[in-house]
Amino acid sequence: MSGDRSPGSPLDLNDTEQAVLMDPIDFERNRYPYCIVWTPIPVLSWIFPFLGHMGICMSNGVIRDFAGPYFVSEDLMAFGNPTKYVQLSPQKANNGQAGWDAAVTQASEIYRKRMHIIFYDNCHSHVATALNIMSYGGSKNWNMVKLVFYMIPYSKYVSFSAFLKTWLPFFIIIALICGLAAII
Q1: 123 vs 114: CA distance, rounded Å
Q2: CA-CA distances (angstroms) from residue 5 to 9, 40, 78, 87?
Q3: Residues 157, 167: contact at Cβ < 8 Å?
Q4: CB 166 within 8 A of CB 46
Q5: Residues 32 and 58 sit within 8 Å (Cβ to Cβ)
Q6: What is the pTM of this model?
Q7: Per-residue pLDDT averaged across 120-139, rounded?
Q8: Range of the structural domain that residue 71 is part of
Q9: Which of 11, 71, 93, 183 could in theory staple to 100 by disulfide, Cβ–Cβ 3.0 to 4.6 A?
């Protein structure tokens, strides 16, 4: 599930020097420096496994996620530990590490004053706002739809059990539907 990164991926091959200086991902402690993290939402992700809950991490790996109305969680994702992540390059953020942390903090402050609207202003919007504030990759065009499609090719599963947590309910539902269709 993990593999070599290609040019244009979140952590470009040109970023190797910077990657060496970053703290490593610590799966046991749920520390994901410079990452976007994702976890399934029960029932919703069982039917649509590409839809779930998203957070963005500080340079020290602490997760921030817009977990509900007027609430940004720190280090405790609303729907459980991450099952997928994509590590980004801090040098693609305005002002590097300082710019990254400032943008995540500012986005979190903005969303602590907002109502959570599941189809419009949600956890994906919080992450997009942070990326827009830091002008990640020179862009201020991040949005929730772009993030969903960004995670599909670039994300990695935390473990095989995380892969199963994401996909097994979907395949069980499909098997039940196929089984019922065969009976009828």
Answers
A1: 11
A2: 6, 24, 29, 11
A3: no
A4: no
A5: no
A6: 0.85
A7: 95
A8: 13-183
A9: 93
Tally of structural domains, the chain:
1
DSSP 8-state symbol, 131: H
Contacts of 63 (CB under 8 A, 6+ apart): 30, 32, 37, 55, 56, 57, 73, 74, 75, 76, 77, 82
Name the amino acid, one letter, at 180: L
CA dist 43 and 50 (Å) reads 12
Assign 22 a pLDDT band (cuts: 50, 70, 90). Answer: confident
Q: Mean pLDDT, to the nearest integer, of 144-170?
A: 95
d(CA 139, CA 92): 10
The torsion angles phi and psi of 130, rounded to 5 degrees, stand at: -60, -45
Residue with token string 């046991």: 28
H/E run at residue 85:
strand 84-87
What order do you get walking across the sheet with 52-57 strand by strand?
71-74, 63-68, 52-57, 35-40, 84-87, 156-157
Q: Is residue 3 part of a domain?
A: no
Q: Is residue 150 predicted with pLDDT exceeding 80?
A: yes
Q: Quick one: tokens of 4?
A: 């070599």
Locate 100 and state its tokens.
Answer: 């990254």
